[in-house]
Amino acid sequence: MSFTIAIIGRPNVGKSTLFNRLVGQKLALVDDLPGVTRDRREGEARLGDLEFTIIDTAGLDEGAKGSLTARMQEQTEAAIAQADALFFVIDARIGLTPTDRAFADFARKANKPVLLVANKSEGKHGDAGAMEAFALGLGDPIQISAEHGEGMGELYDTLAKLMPEPVDEEEDDEDDAPLSEEEAATRPIRVAIVGRPNAGKSTLINHLLGEERLLTSPEAGTTRDSIAVEINWKGREFRVFDTAGLRRRSRIEEKLEKLSVADALRAVRFAEVVVMTMDAQNRFEEQDLRIADLIEREGRAMVLAVNKWDLMESKGGGAISGLRRDADHLLPQVKGVPIIAISGLMGEGIDRLMQAIQDAYALWNRRVSTAALNRWFEEAVQANPPPAVSGRRLKLNYITQTKARPPSFVLFCSRADAVPQSYLRYLTNSLREAFELPGTPVRITLREKANPFAHKRKRPS
After folding, report:
1. I need a labelling partner for 118 at 20 to 30 A (CA). Which of 72, 152, 253, 277 fits?
2. Any idea of the CA torsion for 45, 47, 49, 50, to the nearest 10 degrees?
3. Which neighbouring-strand residues pair with 42?
């Protein structure tokens, strides 16, 4: 039986630091600036032998109806409704504030067990503030330091009394067995949604979920953390990561934005398929091309999603063909990459997008038999032999696939350092076309074949 705990409290009391401590990873962004967390984030936590789901929430704060602050509080209320218990966190160094007292009443009305956590209690400065917490009427405060790991034992003792007894399950030796092809095919596909700020990434994910799970706003930069959500689309499972907008490095000045961008880049490296979202009215800008190049260098399957297509005046077949020509011209390194016109707000093109993600994932996992590979290789070399370098002919022996995800090959030849990059691009494009690998990153590594006569070249003096 799973047990869920939501961490609540006013801004900048250390909720995200406690979340990171309990999940054992720096998943949530942490900064001295109040209000860093906006969307709610879930993680699998462990405290001693206790295992539970933990939810990090935005700081409780008052805001006008419909404002970003008010919608952040709605996210927190949704987390409270989902939780079995609450960690109400205060800052022991500052002591109680009127906001703490107001939201203590809010937590009390939830009719759920509340653990009062006095964070930042390290040293003598935290004792006075922790003692003030008795006035909230939420029980004895648990003094901890989430940053330094102090007080975790007392937190464990109190939490253990709330959690249900673990159910003994029979051990299954098959848990450690490798996944079968069928199991691998049904495993959730990890998808990262990336793009420039305000390209409609969160709106797209909300439509996929059928609920306002992620905060959206006309203001660029609403999303900060990379939030993962589980999506079932027509029987196929996906784990989708919403990410912060990626601007040019020269324009990133604030420390918090640097952290958000670093979090987005981690999501790209963790993903299997990356959906690069562009604004239909400002597509293929320089930053879009940089992001696409980053995805290709990371070796991830890619799908281009041109969002806000509902705002375009011309939406016919000619416009789609134009997108295809622009993509192939501007992104030759991923020639043939799927490009889908969508509207995350209106739901246009979503079925095509999800199918394109599955097709790109299948290509990313493609393996080619060595026999078919070398038949293609002989024909490609005969059609366009490698150029002579410094008057010496290059000898290309054979090629083999070493791995998938992405498809990677090793080409054995006589002088690896002398093979021109232009000829390597020719082989890559020919291979992609011959084995129908459009848009998939293809890696060809050169390796020199051992020369059995090399030792005879040196004559004794």
Report:
1. 72
2. -60
3. 55
